Each structure stands twice: as C-alpha cells, then as structure tokens.
C-alpha cells in the first residue's frame, strides 16, 4: 500500500457529517502514526507522508469536494507512479449499517460520487476500498440530505467503533496482507 485516501468534503460545515467518515479514519491513522497533514496545491488536498518499508507512503484528504475526489487521487498517484492496486480509498457506505466495516478490492461505485470520480479519472475500479457503514435513510431521494448531516448519537458511537476496529488491522493492510486483514475485520468477535 502506497496511498490511502480518505473521502470527505472540506470545511467545518461538513466536518461531522456521515460523508466525512473517510476523513475521520485518515485523521485517526495520522495521529496513530504521528504524522501531520499539510496543504499540497499540486495534489488538490491535504497530504501526509512517511517512509514505510523503505518506500514513501502517502495519506491524502482531497480538498476538491466529494464529486471531484478523483482529481486529487489521480494527481498524486500519477506523480508518484502509484498503481491502483497500491491504493486504498476509505469512504462512507450506505449499503452497510452503522458499526459495519468491510475491506474489498474493486467493485462498482454504488452511487457514491467520490468513487465514481476516482474510477473515471483512474480509468479503473480495481483499487482497494475500506467501506465504513453509515446506514441508509430508506428512501433514495433522501440520500444526499442524509449523508450531508451528522449521524444520530447512537449511530455515531457505532461508526466510531467501526473506525477503531478497522485501525487495528492497519499493520496488515500496510504490509499487503489483505487476506488476513479481511479475515480479522470480517470475522465476528465472540
């Protein structure tokens, strides 16, 4: 893994919304790794980097708004010659209930505009995703309003727990042991 992208919208207005769980996850990882983000205009985002196994490793929070997330991802990945299979995108997932988190390679966008833009700009859907469940409002016409608002308190606690559980598998993801990461993440704890 050479690039982890957390999806969200920039600005205080969106900070606590369901759509920004990718930003939250990435910020928590940066704290854990003791690295800080700085603005990188040429990459259209906030970036942090460090050496991992003698290779440069990047964290990216696009500052282009969700619908244009691919601009930042494409700029950084092309500049550093990072292939899609070395990319992990962390994002909110409507199709999973709060408290659920899944790791997978490839697949469709599922209506997620950030993923759609990344797929279009990279011309592939074959990159890793960490899908953090935020639940669905039950009506597709309410989705935009739903993701642009903060979760209810009980949902926020479940989402936070999912973020924490998925950060535990970070070393497996970093080392490229995705099978073990998925097994640990997807297996119910007793």
TrEMBL record:
InterPro entries: Pept_tRNA_hydro, Pept_tRNA_hydro_CS, Pept_tRNA_hydro_sf
Catalytic activity: an N-acyl-L-alpha-aminoacyl-tRNA + H2O = an N-acyl-L-amino acid + a tRNA + H(+)
Site (Discriminates between blocked and unblocked aminoacyl-tRNA): 9
EC number(s) stated in the UniProt entry for this protein: 3.1.1.29
Pfam families, per the entry: Pept_tRNA_hydro
A biological process term (GO) from this entry: protein quality control for misfolded or incompletely synthesized proteins
GO molecular function, one term: peptidyl-tRNA hydrolase activity
Record key words, sorted: Cytoplasm, Hydrolase, RNA-binding, tRNA-binding
SUPFAM superfamilies per record: Peptidyl-tRNA hydrolase-like
Active-site residues, record numbering mapped to chain: 19
Binding site for tRNA: 14, 65, 67, 113
A Gene Ontology cellular-component term: cytoplasm
Keyword RNA-binding: yes
SUBUNIT field: Monomer.
Entry similarity comment: Belongs to the PTH family.
Purpose of the protein: Catalyzes the release of premature peptidyl moieties from peptidyl-tRNA molecules trapped in stalled 50S ribosomal subunits, and thus maintains levels of free tRNAs and 50S ribosomes.
Protein name: Peptidyl-tRNA hydrolase
Organism lineage string: Bacteria, Pseudomonadati, Pseudomonadota, Betaproteobacteria, Nitrosomonadales
């Amino acid at each position: 893994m050479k690039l982890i992208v957390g999806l969200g919208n920039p600005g205080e207005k969106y900070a606590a919304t369901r759509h920004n769980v990718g930003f939250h996850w990435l910020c928590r990882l940066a704290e854990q790794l003791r690295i800080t983000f700085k603005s990188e205009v040429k990459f259209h985002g906030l970036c942090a980097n460090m050496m991992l196994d003698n290779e440069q490793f990047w964290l990216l929070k696009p500052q282009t708004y969700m619908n244009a997330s691919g601009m930042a991802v494409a700029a950084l990945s092309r500049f550093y010659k990072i292939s899609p299979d070395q990319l992990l995108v962390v994002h909110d997932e409507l199709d999973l209930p709060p408290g659920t988190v899944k790791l997978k390679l490839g697949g469709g966008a599922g209506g997620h505009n950030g993923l759609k833009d990344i797929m279009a700009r990279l011309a592939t859907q074959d990159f890793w995703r960490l899908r953090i469940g935020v639940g669905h409002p039950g009506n597709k016409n309410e989705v935009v309003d739903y993701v642009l608002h903060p979760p209810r308190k009980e949902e926020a606690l479940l989402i936070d727990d999912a973020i924490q559980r998925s950060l535990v598998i970070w070393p497996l993801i970093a080392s490229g042991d995705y099978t073990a990461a998925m097994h640990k993440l997807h297996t119910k704890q007793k």
